Amino acid sequence: MNLTFFKYQGTGNDFVMIDNRTKTFPKQNTDIISHLCNRNFGIGADGVILIEEDENSDFRMIYYNADGSETFCGNGGRCAVAFAKQLHIIDNKTNFVAVDGPHFAEIKNDIISIKMIDVDTIEVKKDSVFTYTGTQHHVELVDSLDNYPVFENGKKIRYSYNDPGSNVNFAEMIDDATFRVRTYEKGVENETLACGTGVTAVAISMHKIKKTNKTQINLPVEGGNLKVSFKENNGVYTDVYLKGPATFVFKGEIEV
Ligand SMILES: N[C@H](CCC[C@H](N)C(=O)O)C(=O)O
Fold first, then answer.
1. Is 13 known as a binding-site position?
2. What DSSP designation does 118 have?
3. Superfamily of domain 122-243
4. Where are the beta strands (DSSP E) in 74-110?
5. Dihedral sign (CA 160, 152, 138, 79)
6. 100 close to ligand 1 (CB < 6 Angstrom)
7. Tens of pLDDT along 17-71?
8. How far is the CA of 104 from the centre of ligand 1 (A)?
9. Where in the cell is it found (predicted)?
10. What are phi and psi of 67, to 5 degrees?
């Protein structure tokens, strides 16, 4: 079949976006998803995102990692909002639904803010934090991310968690409002240039272990700059917003 796709990237986390309102995309075929994401034999991306109709919200976003596993994706959510606007499904504000539930989002001066789920499962361990921001995230502080072995150390930690494993975020404290982040992503099985649910996990974890008392955090990543803001009350994090750019790269067609 001939497939029209739109390529988007959010701070370097990149996605093949498909308007699947006709419900014709073969979702069960993980080989097709992997092929689309393959950077040599396909289009190349960290994941595939489908936009579908939803009776209770503006649209449904479905995210698949490059290995075909389904999860939520924060940067992907921001790109889905930009894509929905390009398709004239929405204007600058939207309520949409994803695998982890409903999300509000808005576009202001080309910056897309997406409301993330409330975060209340935060497991503080000796040298790391494990939390859930729409998917599983391991967070640990390191002295410097320059030349840090993200792939090697990330892969080891990723598989140390019981199935489905965990994404792994290494954070370097720049100041009390800024944490640089590099992430090894499960399902991509590599370092990505940014991870939205990952930087959200870092911001909340750093507040939880009292490395910062700020509730608006800057998170420079390899592919750009993200921001996370939140409220905290008795250890529960609400009004969690992930903010950053989402860019249309090109439109294309591929035979699958
Ligand atoms: N890049 C995504 C995270 C995808 C998470 C996925 N790798 C998984 O949990 O399996 C983000 O911006 O949140």
1. yes
2. P
3. Diaminopimelate Epimerase; Chain A, domain 1 (3.10.310.10)
4. 93-98, 101-108
5. negative
6. no
7. 999 999 999 998 999 999 999 999 999 999 999 999 999 999 999 999 999 999 9
8. 19
9. Cytoplasm
10. -90, 5
Q: What's the pLDDT at 155?
A: 98
> Residue 188 CA: which ligand 1 atom is closest?
7
* CA within 13 Å, CB half, 157: 25
Was 213 annotated as part of a binding site?
no
Tell me how crowded residue 79 is: count the other CB atoms within 10 A of its CB. Answer: 31
- Report the CATH superfamily, name and number, of domain 2-115+246-255: Diaminopimelate Epimerase; Chain A, domain 1 (3.10.310.10)
Concerning whether 79 is annotated as a catalytic residue, the answer is no
Distance between Cα 47 and ligand 1 center (Å): 9
* Contact present, 208 and 236 (Cβ < 8 Å): no
Whether 37 is a known active-site residue: answer: no
Please tell me the predicted confidence (pLDDT) of residue 29. Answer: 94
Average pLDDT over the chain, rounded to whole? Answer: 98
Count CB atoms within 10 A of the CB of residue 107: 19
Alpha carbon distances (Å) from 190 to 39, 167, 204, 210: 13, 10, 23, 29
Closest CA relative to residue 169, chosen from 128, 108, 123, 120: 128
For residue 163, count CB atoms less than 10 angstroms from its CB and return exposed for 0-12, middle for 13-18, buried for 19 or more.
exposed
Domain residue spans of the chain: 2-115+246-255, 122-243
Q: Pairing between strand 236-245 and 224-233?
A: antiparallel
Q: Is 75 marked as a binding-site residue?
A: yes
131-175 tens-digit pLDDT:
999 999 999 999 999 999 999 999 999 999 999 999 999 999 999
